[in-house]
Amino acid sequence: MSTQREMKEKNPWHRPVTIIITVIGVIAIVALVTVAVLQNWPLSQKYKYGIVLDAGSSHTALYIYEWPAEKDNNTGRVEQTHSCTVKGPGISSYASAPQKAGESLTECMQEAVHRVPKKRHHETPLYLGATAGMRLLNVQNSSASNKVFQAVDEALREFPFAFQGARILSGQEEGAFGWVTVNYLDDRLRQGLETNGALDLGGASTQISFVSSNYDGSESPSNSVNFRLYGNDYNLYTHSFLCYGKDQALRMTLAQQTRSGPTSILDPCFHDGYSETKEYSKLYDSPCVSDRKPQEAPSTYIHTGKGNFHQCQEIVKSVFNFTHCQYSQCSFNGIFQPHLQGPFGAFSAYYFVMNFLKLTNTSIPLEQVKEKLAHYCATPWTQIQKQYPNVKHKYLAEYCFSGTYILTLLTEGYNFTSESYPNIKFIKEIKGSDAGWTLGYMLNLTNMIPAEAPDSPPLPHAGYISIVTVIAVLLFVLFILSMRPFWPQCSKEPQII
Ligand SMILES: O=P(O)(O)OP(=O)(O)OP(=O)(O)OC[C@H]1O[C@@H](n2cnc3c(O)ncnc32)[C@H](O)[C@@H]1O
């Protein structure tokens, strides 16, 4: 009993001071590691939201974007979480009943109210950008255009979001923001990689935007947009061709064929067997063709098809003007265009049409693509209708024209060749977000792409935690070793019990 007590008194590990120091040491190290881990633990994700309404010529679409609340300034993080297609036509079609333009947005806006968490409503910016349909209405009837905007404004103010206004985007903005969107989603801007050009085909206008090393903006400065994004300077070439969206281009090819006001036309861009009676007043009700309206034309004409790709291409070519160019080189209509450079993403109607025609694979030689389209155009209308009973009648009737228009615009208009055609990728979306101008527009207006690259911490989170843990363990081992003089000594002599 007394020897036991003696040993206890001699063994420093049994001294209260040593025990207390050890416990405090362990607690301190555990606390140090815990604080380091907790401090750097990602906060429970809170999101911010932004809503953009794309008021196009053919329809309006609503997009909701979401990004982690604490990382506004980082890239590649803003994502589309929801989209809603507004029922009915584009807002420019409500020129004679502006109130209905506002009302048409209600359903999608209510969806947005449910999709965005309530506590975020008041801080969620809401934008409406109108494109070529409203540009044309503004040219045709500016007071009607103002009334449509007034109605849309009033309707959107009813919702609990931070409404930032409704306006017409210039063609240059539409092109440039489309380019920002595709390159942002591909994470090319933050990483400073070679950028992709953007080809956007709408209903009433079409945009081409790309960076070319032989373009510094000095030739045709109106086509130049300068950006400084994440510390990199971009000199972007962009042009928007009003009236060269696929719906207005179709009007122009029809106007070309009805110049003398005939009662019927035999159109190679429509399938053999297609026949519909159409109104002249509707065909010419657009500033893109109104000046070509034939005098004393009957009220209607019969639009029949004969399905001939090559003849169709000739008519389509006739809506482009290649005769004059005051610059070193042009695309068409006397518009400057530098040498095409790099890969291109082609979206909106480029994708819808080429996807339907199963022609999105650009590694198929261009000549073969034309042959396939020629074969499609030559298919009788009755057979096409039987083959695609669920496709919207208007789209189905127009795919031969639309495909021919796309190939003609790309090759004759923009000068893509058999060699450069494979540089085009037909895309609908990138990483779940639709390709289009809306995301780039919101990123710009919310200043979410910084001009300079954001500073990043010298160590990533995992590296920081590992180093703190290693140091803590080393300290602990050092502490234990420093207590060596107090370690219990084992007797070398065998003990007889
Ligand atoms: O940019 P603007 O010129 O104002 O036009 P938009 O915004 O209305 O243009 P979209 O990109 O929404 O659509 C482009 C065109 O594609 C058409 N379109 C949409 N879905 C389609 C589909 O599935 N098949 C064929 N065409 C389609 C639509 O009617 C337009 O003519």
Automatic annotation (TrEMBL):
Q: Keyword Nucleotidyltransferase, does the record have it?
A: no
Q: Does this UniProt record's set of keywords contain Ribonucleoprotein? A: no
As one GO molecular function, the record gives: ribonucleoside triphosphate phosphatase activity
Can you state which reaction this protein catalyses? CTP + H2O = CDP + phosphate + H(+); a ribonucleoside 5'-diphosphate + H2O = a ribonucleoside 5'-phosphate + phosphate + H(+); ITP + H2O = IDP + phosphate + H(+); ATP + H2O = ADP + phosphate + H(+)
Q: Which residues bind ATP?
A: 203-207
Bilayer topology reads: Multi-pass membrane protein
The transmembrane segments are: 16-38, 462-482
Family indicated by similarity: Belongs to the GDA1/CD39 NTPase family.
This chain's protein is named Ectonucleoside triphosphate diphosphohydrolase 1
